[in-house]
Write a structure and sequence with these properties.
Low-confidence stretches: none
CATH architecture: 3-Layer(aba) Sandwich
Oligomer: single chain
Distance between the termini: 64 Å
Number of domains: 1
Number of strands: 7
Shape: globular
Helix content: 25-40%
Number of helices: 5
Mean pLDDT: 88
CATH class: Alpha Beta
CATH topology: Glutaredoxin
Strand content: 15-25%
Structural class: alpha/beta
Strand order of the largest sheet: 5-4-3-6-7
C-alpha cells in the first residue's frame, strides 16, 4: 500500500509535465480549441465604460439587434500582441466600415486611456472588465481574442491570439465574408 502512495507524486508530476510539453508544442493551434459560444447568444454581461474615456461602456444589449455582424475584441494595454493587431483592427473600421466593440480586460483605466491615446481609438464602445468576470463569461483563454457576432447577437466566430500576418488576416477576413460583414476577400 505504501508503494502505491509513493508512485502518486510521480504520476501527478508526469501528467503535469505532459500538459506543459503539449502547451509548448509549436504545431498546436490555439484556434483549434473550440468555443462553446459558437452558434450561441452572446453571454449576459454589462460593463461600465473605461474611466477617463469618452467611449460608452458595453453590454449584451449593444450586441443584439444590429444591422449586421460586429467585431468584439478583448484587449489590454499590457498585452504586446494586442498592440500588434491594433492597426489591423483600425483598418477594418476605417477602410472596410466594420463596427468594432472592445472589452478592456483586467487593465488599469489610466493605462488603457494612455494606450488608446497613443494608438487611436477605433472602438465604438468599450467595456471595462477590471475583474475579468466578463472574460470568464466569454470563455477567453487570454488576450487578445476577437469574436464576430451576428446581427441577432449570436457568436459566429472566435479568433484566439493577435490578428496579424497574412495568414491570420486572411482567415479573419474570410470569417467576416462568411458572416456577411464583408464582400469578397480583398487584402488587408
Amino acid at each position: 500500500m505504501k508503494r502505491a502512495f509513493a508512485i502518486v507524486p510521480l504520476l501527478v508530476a508526469g501528467i503535469f509535465g505532459g500538459f506543459f510539453l503539449w502547451g509548448l508544442n509549436p504545431e498546436r493551434d490555439p484556434n483549434g480549441i473550440p468555443s462553446v459560444l459558437i452558434s450561441q447568444p452572446v453571454p449576459k454581461f454589462k460593463l461600465e465604460p473605461v474611466e477617463g474615456l469618452e467611449t460608452l461602456g458595453l453590454s449584451k444589449a449593444d450586441l443584439t439587434d444590429n444591422s449586421g455582424p460586429v467585431i468584439v475584441n478583448v484587449f489590454a494595454s499590457w498585452c504586446v500582441p494586442c498592440r500588434a493587431e491594433h492597426e489591423v483592427l483600425t483598418k477594418l473600421v476605417e477602410r472596410d466600415g466594420q463596427r468594432l466593440f472592445g472589452i478592456n480586460y483586467k487593465d488599469k483605466p489610466k493605462d488603457a486611456v494612455r494606450w488608446l491615446a497613443q494608438l487611436g481609438n477605433p472602438y465604438e464602445r468599450i467595456g471595462s472588465d477590471i475583474t475579468g468576470r466578463a472574460g470568464i463569461e466569454w470563455g477567453i483563454s487570454g488576450v487578445p481574442e476577437t469574436f464576430i457576432v451576428g446581427a441577432d447577437g449570436t457568436v459566429l466566430y472566435r479568433y484566439v491570439g493577435p490578428v496579424v500576418g497574412e495568414a491570420a488576416i486572411a482567415k479573419f477576413r474570410a470569417a467576416l465574408v462568411q458572416a456577411g460583414a464583408l464582400k469578397g476577400t480583398s487584402g488587408e
